[in-house]
Every structure is written in C-alpha cells, then in structure tokens.
Amino acid sequence: MKLFFSLLAAFLAGSNASPSVLPRQSSVRLAVSPNCGTLAGAPASVNAGLKDLSSFDTIVAFGDSYTSGGVADGSALAPADIVPPNPSAGGRISNGKLWVENLANVAGATLHDYAINGSVIDAMEFQMSSPLRQQKDFLGQVNSYLSSRTRPVNPDTTLFVVFVGTRDYENREDLTFQNFSLTTGAISYAIADLTFSSGVKNFLFVDNYGRGEKTSDGEAYKQALFDALKDAKAQMGISFAFADLYPIWNGVLGSNPGYEAFGFTSPGACIVDQSLNDACDDPDHTFYWISEYPSASTHSIMAEYVEKVITQFRKAGYQAIDRICDYYYELQQSKFPVVSQVEPGYLRPLLPSAAPDAGEDFQQIADDYQKYIVPGYTHWQHPSFFGYFPTGFSFEGLLGDLYSSSVSNPGFNWAASPSCTELESIVLDWAAQMFGLSPAFLNSSGTGGSCIQNTASDSALVAIIAARSTYTAQFPDAKLEDLVIYTTTQTHSLGVKSAMVLGLSTRALEVKREDKFSLRGDTLRTALEEDRKKGKKPFILIATVGTTSSGAVDNLAEIKEVVLDYPELKIHVDAAWAGLSLVCPEYRDKFYLNEINEIADSYSTNFHKMGLVNFDTSPLWVRNRKYLTDALDVNPPFLRTAAGDAGTTIEYRNWHIGLGRRYRSVKLWFVLRGYGVEGFQKYIRKLVSLRERFVEHVSSSDLLQLVAPPSLALAVFRIEPKQPNEALPEESLNNLNRLFYGRISARKEVLLTQTVLDGSFCIRFSVGSPRTQEEHVDKAFEILTHEARLAIESWKQDAAPSLD
Ligand code: PLP
C-alpha cells in the first residue's frame, strides 16, 4: 500500500510539474493472457462449454459492478460523461465504458444491467449492523430480473454475467457466519432459479477477489465458488466460463510484467479524493480512475481478457484445425513441392533476436507460423515423399496428441497419473497381440512387458544398458573394456551411437550381398569363437528385421541355433521399420516372428514409421521387465509412492532413461481404435502394392536396376545401363549414380534418399505416406527416368567419353 501511495504521489507530482511534456502514449494493452485451466484442477480461467460471444444477442449483468446510482433494474446506463474531473460518468465510477459494456459491444449484444456497485451475493448473510444488510444483493437482482416483464426470452442467445469477488470478500468480517458454503449455496440457488425460470443456461462468472493480493481464505473462497459452478454444470447442465482477473491486477500492481508493460503510466488512481474533484493529466493511462475503481482503459482490457477466456483458445483452436486441414488438402493436390526451397540460415533474419518482453497476440503468432515457419518444412506427409523411412500420420493420431498435450502430463509414476500408465500398458498389449508377439511380452503377464520409448535408438540404448547390467551382475569380474556389442555392417547407426554413449566397443559382423545382406548363423558363431579366444565379452547382439539401407532381415532361425550355445548373449531385435508388417500374417514367417518370440530378450518397432501414428511412438517389449528395472531403477524419496512401494503398479520411470515421459499411449489408442487390425493390414498391403508398382516400372526400364531384393515398401535401385560389350567398372557406376542422385535431389517435387550397399552407391525408394497413390509413384518414376537420361548424357560427355 505504501508503495502504491508513493507511486501515486510521484505520478501526481510529476504530472503537476510538467503536464505539457507528457509523452504521447499509445493505448493501454493487455499484457497478460489468461492461464486457461481445466475444470478438473484448481480455480482458473476456463471456458466450460460456453459458446462464442457472437452467439449472444442479450447480456444480463448481475453482481458487483463499478456503477452507482439508480441502475440494477435492467436498464442501460446513461451515456458516459467522461469529462474530468467528474468522477462518476453516467452512473459509472469510471471515466468511460465499463468492462461489461465493452463485452456487450464485442458480442453485438444488448446489455441489461442489474449489477450494482458494492453488491454482495446474499445480504441476509450479513450482520444487522452491517450496511451491506440493506444492499441490493445478487439474489435480489435475480428477483428483479425474473419479475421484469421486459426481460428477454430467448434462452439460447442470452448470457448471464455475474461479477463477484472483491467486495464480498473484503466485507467478510461482517458476515454472520464466515462460511463460504452459505455464499456458494446462495450462488447455486440463484443459478437454479435463473435457469429454471428463464431457461437460460449460459453463465459467465468474473472473479476479482483480493485485487492482486492473495490470501489463503480468499483462495478458499475462490475454490468454493469454482466448485459451486462445477456442481451447477454437473447438476443443472449449465455452460459457463470463469474468468479470474487476478493476472491483470497482479500484473499491474506487481512486477510481472508491471504496469508499464500494459502502457499505464501509473498503477495508481487519477482521482484521489472523489470529493475533491481532482484529476490527473493522463486519465487514459492510469490503472484506476478513483482509488480501487478501474479507469476506462482498465475496463477495456478487462473486457478483452474476459473475451479471451471465452473465445481465444476456441477460435485459435478451430483456426489451427482449419489450417491443418487446408495444409493436408494442399498436400494431396501437390500444391507445393516436397522439399523446402529455403537456404540455410533463412530464418534468423526473419525473426527478432530475442523473445518479446510482453506476451504477443495469439493470432499474430499463428500468422507468423504460416509465414515464416511453414516454408522451411520438408513435407514428410507429401504423397511424393519417398525418402528415408517416411513417418506415420493419421488424424486420429493428431487428435490423440492434442488431448495428450492438453493435460501435459509427465506420467513417470503410476501415481503421477494412473491413466497414463495404465493406458500405455493396455494399448501395448493390444499391439503385441496384433503383431502375434508371445504372451510372455505382455504387460498383463506380470513378468514381461513394454513401454513407449522416444525412438528405436533409445530402445536399443536401453536394451544395451539392461544387457550390460545383467552381464556384469552375472560376471562381476568382467572388465567394461572387454564388453562388446555385436551389430552387423547393415545395422542402423543406433548400434554405434549407443556404444559411443556408453563407452563400449562394437563389432560389426559382415553381411554379404549373396545373403541378401542378412546376418548368417555361421558368421555369428565364428565371431563369438574368435572373441571368446581373445578374452572379449560379446554380451548383446542387435539383430535387425528390416535394415535401413535395403530392408534386409537377419537370419534369426540360424542365430537361434547359435545362441543356444551362448546363453549369456542377449538379443535385441530392432524392427523399427518392418515390425509393423507383422500385423499381416503373410509376413510373419519371412520376418521370423516365431524366432523373435523364442529368443529376443527385447524387441522394438516404431509405430511412427509404417504404423500410422504421428512421430513419435516407439514401443520396446521385454521378456522380463526386471531386465530393465534392475538396470534403471532409482528410487529417491521424493519419487516414492505407496503404490510403487507395494509393487502393485508399473512405475515407467524405471523402464527408460528419463524421468518424465511423453504421454503417447493416448494417440496410439486413438489410432488402434480408429483403424482396427484390418485397417493396419490394409494400409501395409497398400504400401507394398505401391512399391510393387515401382518395381514393375524399374524392371521394364533399360536404364535402372534393382540392387537388392525389394522388401515391403522399400526398393533400392541404381542406373545400370546395358553396355553392349562389358559391364562398367563399379567406380564408374558409382560416379554416374552420384551424378544421378545429385540431379534427383535438385528436383523439389519428389524426395528420395541415397545409400551404399556393399560398395555400390544406390538410391532408395520408400513408400510410406498414406496419401501416396499410384499416380505419385508413376510420376516419380517418370522424373527418375528423365533425370537418369540426362545424368547418363552429361556423364558420358564429362566423365567417360571413352566409354561411349
Ligand atoms: N532402426 C532401423 C532399422 C531404422 O531404419 C531406423 C530409422 O530409419 C532406426 C532404427 C532409427 O529409428 P529412430 O529414429 O526411431 O531411432
């Protein structure tokens, strides 16, 4: 308070001294945003089902207000007399429109005013000696409204607005019983009366208790009010919004962000003593008009704030969905190329060099996203995206992600959010069954189980950590420098990366072209024997079902025979991409489902590849959950819970590296339900048929040839011109294909990626977008043929004239 008066004095002194040099000010702006909460949580601004403001043609105001004089009968206020020093303008204790008038303006609605300054909820609750006992209260206002002959009749287009808080709370000492339930009971009664008698079920409650100063009983009052509204919603079916004005008062009177951020020149009042008719020189930039009564500028930002509570998130949300739908429509029409056209570093000059001091308008942010960020995307969901392994997408997944994000829940313990843990354990059991995984891997087995990791790389890292921990527990004398991770020359870089992270060595076992780049049992056995002799300790093999470069599959049937003799060797099966095909029975033998079920200690696949789930969802299944928890269980006191200690719940924090974890099961649940097993099967078969179409084109081409057998939705090919006399040397072919790939990469309307197989430079064609149709495959092949011809021509001229 002291600070308040000294600021006020400073302001008045300053303005008296040199009124003419006041800087020109832009208008006051809302420098805070409502923290939109949920009904489930503590009281917070929330829109619980209230329609857009524009759908109301009538607003009826009840409760406290900033008016004085003969209102509270539903009539409009007299026009504002805003000529200072008149402190009370047209019945308002402000120098212009009140917030509710501004709100009615925004809505385009007629305002019927029953609210009155200093009103309480129920005057009868106050002691006889209290002046408030004589006050026209909210219940009285409701009576006036309901007995008015002229009251509006359309329940759908009428909004009841109730401003509560400040006065009720400040005068609590005068209450007969300081019991919030009486007050909230009166509110419930008034809501019931209004709803029953008028049929109107639309309510907006605006709360401003404490004016920026929180106290524990004030918070309890707010909680009771909020709970009463939730009950009224549940019991009487009302739609309501609750706007908590605390951020404005706290924002101006405190330092976050402080009054200047709003454009106020003072957090104080323009008129200090109503009876003195004094006034400041800059009434448009003071927070209060009269002490504790907001100025017209403040009323205007109050209305904006309330409007944001009701509409901002919805509007912005609908707009975002509209824009996403438009984006997909345009993708489908190939209205823009797959590959981004921007140059490296394009973004920095377009964005400010630091975050804004004050929060910015949401619409502006959304527009800037379209303008600056979207152009820098490579469109992984484009129908002509044939690079890498495409990422999954479905609208079910997108909406699941939205719901997940709406609760922003780190779900590390069962107790941290039971549904996060339980849903994950259930949907992963669904997935395991859909792939035909052994019941041993199910969470319901109580022994095995699964959890969603960030990526297949994380799954491999976690599996290696678990295997290392098991090995060192079994062989305590083993030195870490002797431990070896087995991969193959075709294993994804996740093997080497994990080894780097853990400071361990890898040995990449050789796979051969004639074996279709598959790891054979003999190769494994020989390596194990060699290493055993050298005192090395191979402790885990990363086997792959569907390698990145060619979709090759390690021969798990042969590997199974070998590991019978090396039981200490753990097997992690990385089926990041191909694993989804196990949903189709016809692929189960080819991809060694039986052997996975028999020998894999851990198994990983990515729903975010061929699994229709938006990045990221990468489950890891283990045969024995202790495998993970023995290696990763840390139990500091602050993470202990009764359920965890009892061992009756899954504590997923002990199944992966981080503590908090993204809540991904909800999107997986949406997608699994949205498509069903048959939907997944159909999708995989469609991808394979598109790849088959591409292979038919290649087979009929006199320029292009496959380099490896096609696998699922992947084909690997290169230029191999038919030479009349002799085959080209490998190095020449590689140069030619590098040139070819350079040309393809320059084409922005199609995207393919390169690889090297057994020394041969080649190009991958990988189908994966749900939007890809035959025409896109045909078009891609047309582009490839065209570029192949040009590549051969220029290569003949520049590089190999002698070969002509
Ligand atoms: N394993 C294989 C066989 C892959 O093809 C890939 C990526 O394409 C990965 C692992 C890596 O996947 P993630 O990005 O989920 O780590």
TrEMBL record:
Residues 1-17 form the signal peptide. Coiled coil: none annotated. It comes from the Eukaryota. The modification N6-(pyridoxal phosphate)lysine is found at K609. Keywords: Decarboxylase, Lyase, Pyridoxal phosphate, Signal. Its cofactor is pyridoxal 5'-phosphate. Pfam families: Lipase_GDSL, Pyridoxal_deC. GO terms for biological process: amino acid metabolic process; carboxylic acid metabolic process. One of its GO terms (molecular function) is pyridoxal phosphate binding. One of its GO terms (cellular component) is cytoplasm. Belongs to the group II decarboxylase family. This is Uncharacterized protein. It comes from Tetrapyrgos nigripes. The lineage of its organism: Eukaryota, Fungi, Dikarya, Basidiomycota, Agaricomycotina.
